[in-house]
Amino acid sequence: MEVFSTASDIPSSYLCAYSVFNQNVSVYNFGDVLVTKDHKTTGQVKIISGGKTSYIDYVGKGMLTATVQGPNSESPTPNVILKTIRELSLNHINGILVIISAHSKDSLSFGLAVERAINDDLHVKFLSVSEDCGKNALSREQQKSSNQSGMVLIYKIAGALSQCNKSLSYIFEYCTRAVQFLVSDSSTMRQDLFPKKISYCQKSSSDIHGNNFLPTSGMTKENLQEVLTELLSNLIKNNKFVLSPGDICILLINNLGAFKRQEEFVIMGIVAAFFEAKNLQVVRLYIGRYFRINDNVELNISLLKNFDEDLVTYLDASCSVPGWFPVYQDAPILKESVIQSCLRRKCRLSPPIKGPKLRDRLSNVIQLCLQFACDALISCEKMLNKIDSEIGNGDTGSKMRSIAEVLNKRSCNHKLNLSYPFTFFLSLSKILDHTVGGDIGCVYSILFEAVANKFGDYREDDEISFNMWIEAMENACNALKKYGGANIDQYTVYNPISACLDTMKAHSNKECNPIDVFNLGVSKAEDVALQSIKPGCKYPNAEAHAVGIWLRATYEGVKLKC
Predict the structure, then answer these.
(1) Containing domain of residue 492, as a range?
(2) From residue 43, how far is each of 114, 163, 257 by CA, in Å?
(3) Which of 33, 466, 470, 519 has the smallest number of CB atoms closer than 10 Å to its CB?
(4) Where is 504: in which H helix or E strand?
(5) 396-412 and 381-388 are packed helices; what angle lies between their axes, rounded to 10 degrees?
């Protein structure tokens, strides 16, 4: 079974399927012709285009009335084009405007069809869109076989004028004038860029996380700026018209798959800086993937000089086509939008005093437990790194040491309030988030933040009890599970702490010594950490094992002082 039709007098299967996707259009039963469903009910001038390049995404209200596509990436036949013109002219007196790129061979087929339509006394005009800036990086042969992206702007202008019930002559003359101020240039990014800068790109690959690196494209911002500067310079120094300081421009950047969406904004920044340096004002900048030009072109930029005060109004007019990307630019794009924060008070690293207070002896226990836990993690750095290297990056020990050193330093400098659990644990959370960062810093920040929040719920005159510590630990487990997506099948920080909590809760009502209950919980956490060995591995999960280490050290501090 053939997937695509080869006959020129029946519609291709992809166009029929497209009419299912876009239910504002239909397919004629002759050739590859896509047309708006309401074309018979509107009295405005009708706009036709087409050719080898697919323009089907621009058929709809506010742009094209119909597009005539060629079979198998060939130009459509004059007979199919003429039949389309005749169909659209039936009981229609306002006329048809045919818009074709001057850089393609499609103009011959469409030109012949238009001449025959005129001989049939049909009201038709033919607009050839030339966008050559006179300094194009593409060869002349490549230009002849490819279209340029500025066609989309002409479609938009013509469609908007038609919606405003302008006459065919007016639309033709206005669009003809627009073409006189339209230029485009293309780049084969890989050929233009990599032969010049391949050694530099290889050198820069080690800095993949730097601000100047575009990861998917394999190029640096400086390399990209060089290529863009050449393209933009060709546009403003074109042979069609003169651009003077203060002139207003519209830009359309057609990204044909060379860049990710985030990288498009890097391009926008470079373009904005270029035009600002030239004292040229860009009032509209469109960027995205509009249509394929040819297999070589990866980036195409079109520049339209603002020649009429209503031009931007026509470009901003509403339309309902999938291929047009509306923009929300009321001010010139060279003006960055940065607003000042309304908050005047800076975030305090040292939190306020809140909740119940520990007795002096117990606050000393807290300090000793913190010191024991930090010392244990520092001494186990190499072991944890070795464990983590089996299936991870081999840096869990180094990360835990970083946390321990930060907290140890604050404690030794007496910069932690040990008397109020709320203040103490909130300080730990803020310190780790501010200094350590990353996933591990965030996990422990959430842990300590949740413990602090629970102590903040109690009154200042409440006596701190063992059950308060259990409730605070339970709040921490709930927070880790809520924000970390942790579950019992993933041996992370959550699982040992959760096991410790469940054991302590099970024995807290049995008149046991709280220290002994804590010991049972720590032992259970250590067992769970050791059970985290995955099939085929020798070692347990490093993060889970680290929890067992600092929990055991904390218990030893409690046992020593209590």
Answers:
(1) 360-561
(2) 21, 9, 38
(3) 466
(4) helix 494-507
(5) 150
